[in-house]
Amino acid sequence: MNGSLIDPRQFQPALPLPDGYTREKILEILTSVSIDHSARGDLYGYAFADCERFLHTLSLIPEGAGGKLIEIGANPYFTTLLVRRFRPGLSLSLVNYFGAGVTFGQQQVTFPGFDGVEETFELPFHNVNIEESKLPFADGEFDCMLFCEVLEHLTNDPVAALLELKRVIKPDGLLVLTTPNAARLETVVALLDGRNIYDQYSGYGPYGRHNREYTRHELHALLTHCGFDVEVSYTANVHPDAASSLDPEGINRLLLATRNREHDLGQYQFTRWRNSRPAESRLPAWLYRSYPKERMAP
Question: Can you tell me the distance from the alpha carbon of 173 to that of 272, in angstroms, rounded to the nearest whole number?
């Protein structure tokens, strides 16, 4: 490794790009999105940092997919725009959560368009706290679900939330789930460096921060518990890792002492699951405590 820290990008798939588009072109489009007449560029930092995450997410939805797709946590609609353009066979329903008291809303999105023609359209959404309320949809209504960068924000009962999501996905339907990787290289280095890895308190309340991140093994255990079978799973960096002054060769030796650890160092987990069987009815003991014994899985 020539005295440098392991690069997670060496162990992840190439950046998936829609035919005819470059990363720079997609970035130019997403960094110019305006929501409800906000100034162009208000979302520049978010789009710039995570553009590659949105492209990896898009690639998890099979090309030519048809039917109905539901996106949980759609705002600020970067993935929504990509799906509308590059998976046109899917009919979209959107869910956000902007606080109690409202059940339905709508936001106006303006962006330069993928063909250079500016577009403005209204995006209606259901306002639902998935930890506290049922989704306003029938059982098995959707062929595919996007549940991206939401799991880590849940505060109380992720199994209950996942089972509610499972309810509205058709049997054999797809769940595309992305979430930060708790065991990413950045986190390992930060702990060794004596830096805190937990999120700051947010002005948006508890849902404005990461409340629990998952390792790759934990994510697989959780989704398997809920009756899903994995089809695609990898970790990937989408922006440069934070710099460190620690000895890179020493860190590399420690990391590589664990078999296949080099494939588990990316910043995000990108996964696709099949809703293939019933969920376990009890709670996994590795994730829950202080519940009645009869509610716990062995």
Answer: 10
DSSP-based helix, strand, coil % in the chain, nearest 5: 30, 25, 45
Tell me how long the chain is: 298
**Structure-token pair, residue 13:** 């798939």
Question: The dihedral of CA 188, 54, 16, 275: what is its sign?
Answer: positive
pLDDT reported for residue 2: 57
Give yes or no for a contact between 130 and 145, defined as CB atoms under 8 angstroms apart.
no
Please give the Cα distance from 137 to 71 (Å, whole number). Answer: 13
pLDDT for 1 equals 47
Written as one letter, the residue type at 67 is: G
Kindly list the structural domains of the chain, giving each domain's residue range(s) and its CATH number in brackets, ordered by start: 8-276 (3.40.50.150)
Give CA–CA dist 11/252, Å, rounded.
14
Name the pTM for this structure: 0.96
Distance CA 160, CA 166 (A): 10
CB contact at 8 A, 111 and 29: yes
Round to whole Å and give the CA distance between 131 and 72: 12
At 3 the pLDDT is: 77
Phi, psi of 6 (to 5 degrees): -50, 135
For residue 174, what are the β-bridge partners?
144, 274
Q: Which residue has the tokens 């009869």?
A: 294
Residue ranges in the chain whose pLDDT is less than 70: 1-2
pLDDT tens-digit map of 248-280: 999 999 999 999 999 999 999 999 999 999 999
